[in-house]
Write a structure and sequence with these properties.
By secondary structure, this protein is mainly α. It is 67% helix and 0% strand. The longest helix has 29 residues, at 173-201.
Length: 202
């Protein structure tokens, strides 16, 4: 499968926001992202995850530079030991530093929206208050893309589950098992809720 998470893709996204941004600045950030997403502690949260989300975004018909930038940066800092919200907040700082480096008013205009999208992944829900330029449907699309692996085939999901276990190798098996079990209970409860909602709409 060809990757969507390429340096050219990132450069084209940024230049679509502002063609006047120095190409060397974009190249440097693209190289940094490649390094970050190739860190040894990552098994699932890699460039493959970014590529998967970019491809899914394109298929959704909701593509925008704002959503693409949020995808690129949302997991750029990932330390399973620290966990959230540290990872998300540090990822936001990386994005905002990049925005400052570009000295682009167009990029600055996207700053709050992209940061809000990344921050929404802490609790994986639409924030109660959104910036004027960001609508709830954009947040919903982004969060759905981030968790769309859960709707994959059993084989793909099993691979995802194993990769997450590897990332959390520092967690004792009994503790991981309790968290894994609770996560599955939450998913089943959400499925039942959706089924009840669907039945009520008929």
């Amino acid at each position: 499968m060809s990757s969507f998470a390429t340096e050219n893709r990132f450069m084209n996204t940024v230049l679509a926001v502002d063609p006047a941004i120095d190409g060397e600045i974009i190249h440097t950030m693209a190289a940094e992202l490649q390094i970050r997403y190739s860190e040894p502690q990552r098994y699932y949260h890699t460039l493959e995850h970014i590529s998967y989300m970019l491809k899914a975004l394109e298929s959704s018909g909701r593509s925008s530079e704002m959503l693409e930038l949020a995808i690129w940066f949302h997991d750029c800092v990932y330390d399973p030991v620290k966990g959230g919200p540290s990872n998300e907040l540090e990822s936001i700082r990386v994005f905002e530093t990049f925005v400052d480096t570009t000295k682009s008013r167009a990029m600055a205009a996207l700053r709050v929206s992209v940061s809000t999208l990344i921050e929404a992944t802490i609790q994986h829900r639409v924030p109660d208050v959104l910036p004027a330029q960001l609508c709830a449907s954009d947040v919903t699309v982004f969060l759905d893309l981030d968790m769309s692996i859960l709707a994959e085939t059993p084989e793909v999901y099993d691979k995802y589950s194993q990769q997450i276990r590897w990332e959390y190798a520092h967690v004792l098996a009994k503790d991981y098992g309790s968290m894994d079990g609770q996560a599955k209970e939450n998913i089943l409860r959400e499925i039942r809720r959706l089924e009840m909602t669907s039945d009520a709409d008929i």
